[in-house]
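Input sequence (530 aa), recorded before submission:
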Amino acid sequence: MTIDPPQTFNVKSVAIIGAGPSGIASLHDLSRVTKNGKSLFGERDISNYEREGNLAFPELVAFERNSSVGGVWNKGAFGDNNNDPNLPEIADYSVDLTNAENVYQKISIDTELEKQLADSSVDHPVEVPVTPQISSTIRNQWRSSAAYNGLFTNVTNRYMSFSFDERVGDELKKINSKYKHLPDFQSASDVSDYLEKVVANNNLGKYIRLNTNVERVKKLPSGKWEVVVSLLTEKNGQKVLHWYKQLFDAVIIGNGKTVPIVPNIKNMAKFAEVNKDKVTFKLAKSVQDPSFIRKAKKPLFVGSSVSSVDLIQYAFPRDIENPSIYISRRADASNSSWVTFCSYAKGIVNKPTIEEFLPESNSVRFSDGTVERDFDAVVVCTGYHMFYPFIDKSVVDSSPDVFKFFRYTFSMADPTLALVGNTYAGFFFNRVESQAAALAGVWSNRSKLPSLKEQKQEYENIPKLITPVIDRSFIRPLIALALEGRPHPFTVNKEKSDHIYHVASGGHTVLGLFFKVRNGEVDSRDILSS
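Predicted structure, token format:
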């Protein structure tokens, strides 16, 4: 049942799911709230407040399923460390592949394990050996990062940092000039290094439990949230899952988008299997290194989003008078972004959706009736689900508003359940810290949420998040709920006051680089050369 938000919250302990940018931002702002509602923004050493017991949220735990922090930017989970399958490893491809439940595999909590969990804790977990079946299930949970060797950002560097740990001055100049073909941008590894540094600078590592996957989250009659997790370790050469549960007053979902959207295309899996010796077939999520695209004589990209365009760069240079790069798209683009210009560039053949794969002839039939054959690389770039497999069915069934988030952050069914991140829009780092700032303000009772009626009215009339309105429609309404002394992210660094120009200028740089690569002026292998 959905009710009006309480006048006061009694939140002392918070579980944060994920330690990527969303989780790191949440840890920072929640760890820096005093009992009297003061923001300790910008203070790296808060040990005195801890010793005095003067923190509003004394128990913060971020559960990160990988072995290091960073989320999609975690270099320990991308490139050669990407262990995701090329296609979902399922027996029945007649199921609806666009349903995340059918491509994400859960580890079953049987009756015996449930009974043992009753007395479990972080110090006294239940040990379960990892069988081949469990190992396969973990592999099909899409735990790796979608980044790959050679990936670079498409957002300028000043917006790839938090306001509480800005890259400014000489540090910003150094990263801006690191790559001669890509001024003001950086590699995925650079972002990973920055996030690790933020965690170290602000002593956030003590809150993070690595290699720990959240398996289930449910609300108890007591009002507490029960979080069940499994810690993956190795003991005497045998991998072991250490299961336990822990209670919290509030939960932040910060797991991002990791489960790929797999299209329902006839004969797709059979095509990949029959032609495995002559066709490299991958989801974009499982690409470790894009060098195979450069070697391909005739690559096909399913989907026309930014992921597709990012990877297409590695197919050049080649003869653009006789195009051999194909994109299958659902419809012609309706905007004029740099991604659109790239995807329609000379040298690329745009085709409609795929009707079916024809395995025996290594061919593809498109919805316009045309058939193309002899593709030697197929990359499926159809996006990612907003998917929360750990949220128990009892929570989902309790209200139709569970996954409706006021100001993208507070569940309208229960404001002690929050979402940070997981939206498609620019200025990601500054957006997630504004969400964390709002949570700190509301859960510490220094700010109040409007009535449920007002929340729903605002939710139903929320504007589309295009770049020019993100500050007005996303960041400012959240900062309005923040603690006194917690600044707007764009005011900390005055250069960000011209954020629209910076985004437009950055898009021009990325667009220009794409065509330099296409024209052979820059080798795609040298984009990240110094």
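Checked by second reader. The chain has a mean pLDDT of 96.
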